[in-house]
Amino acid sequence: MTKLTLPDSVMSIGKGAFCGCSGLTELTLPDSVTIIGDGAFQGCSGLTELTLPNSVRLIEVSAFEGCSGLTELTLPNSVKSIGRYAFQGCTGLTELTLPNCVRVVEACAFAYCSGLTELTLSDSLESIDGLAFAYCSGLTELTLPNSVKSIGDGAFAYCSGLTELTLPNSVTSIGNCAFGGCSGLTELTLPNSITSIGDYAFAYCSDLSKITSLAEIPPMCGFKVFNGVNKTNCELIVPEGSVAAYTRAEDWNKFSNIRGFSK
Q1: Residue 7, Cβ neighbours under 10 Å: how many?
Q2: At 95, phi and psi to the nearest 5?
Q3: pLDDT tens, residue by residue, 199-224
């Protein structure tokens, strides 16, 4: 099988329907399809382009997992939910734009998409779950919309291509190891909205040389948040009136070079 065109009578693609069809190269879905089931096209490694019709609402667990030949992906604005592992291991994928209706990127949805270099997230996105974009090592820039409130455990772990990161003033919590292993990261800006940072959240970000925290009250840090960061050389810049608080706060007090800025 190299080409697949489904008739207009098809409303959903069932669980594992075309799983392992590695010879499939072209796929055309009719406007009647609303659901792509669990593992429906899992392991279709020959598939190179995918344009989903504007009728698809749900992309379920592992639907396109391991479609490593996929280089182009167009998700319509009708998509409301992208399940766990949905596109995990799509290593050929280079660009991704999430539809406006997606509020949550579920766990491991785009993990190991190592070829991904451009990522556009919608303004309606509120939560990025655990390992959602972990090991996307080709990602060099990341802009999170102001709607994002939480970043889950390991969400961007080992995205080693990231160099600068500014989190929006909507994020209140950063999960365990959320950016752990982002070894290329040199500059980090934390917003005033941050209240807690999980265990190992920025551990092994070994190139980190400048951290700017806009929070007047030092965010509560979990276990070894900055483990592996050179705290002697890395500059920590905080609000001028908060320098004393940071020098006393757990984990922040390990930085040797803390200085204030005036707003």
Answers
A1: 7
A2: -130, 145
A3: 999 999 999 999 999 999 999 999 99
* Phi-psi category of residue 200: left, alpha or beta, with phi > 0 → left and psi -120 to 50 → alpha: left
Task: Read off the pLDDT of residues 60-102 as tens digits, 9 standing for 90 and up.
Answer: 999 999 999 999 898 999 999 999 999 999 999 999 999 999 9
Please name the residue that has the structure tokens 């999980």: 198
Confirm if 234 and 262 have CB atoms less than 8 A apart: no
Backbone angles phi, psi at 240, to 5 degrees: -55, -40
What's the pTM value of the predicted model, to 2 decimals?
0.94
How far is Cα 49 from Cα 62, in angstroms, rounded to an integer?
Answer: 17
Q: Would you state the structure tokens that stand for residue 139, as one six-digit string?
A: 């990602």
Q: Which residues contact 72 (CB under 8 A, 6 or more apart)?
A: 48, 49, 50, 51, 95
Residues 131-173: tens digit of each pLDDT: 999 999 999 999 999 999 999 999 999 999 999 999 999 999 9
pLDDT at position 236, please?
A: 98
**How far is it, in rounded angstroms, from Cα 111 to Cα 14?**
23
DSSP string, 183-243: TT--EEEE-TT--EE-TTTTTT-TT--EEEE--SSPPEE-TTTTTTS-TTTSEEEEEGGGH
Question: What is the SS3 assignment for 180?
Answer: coil
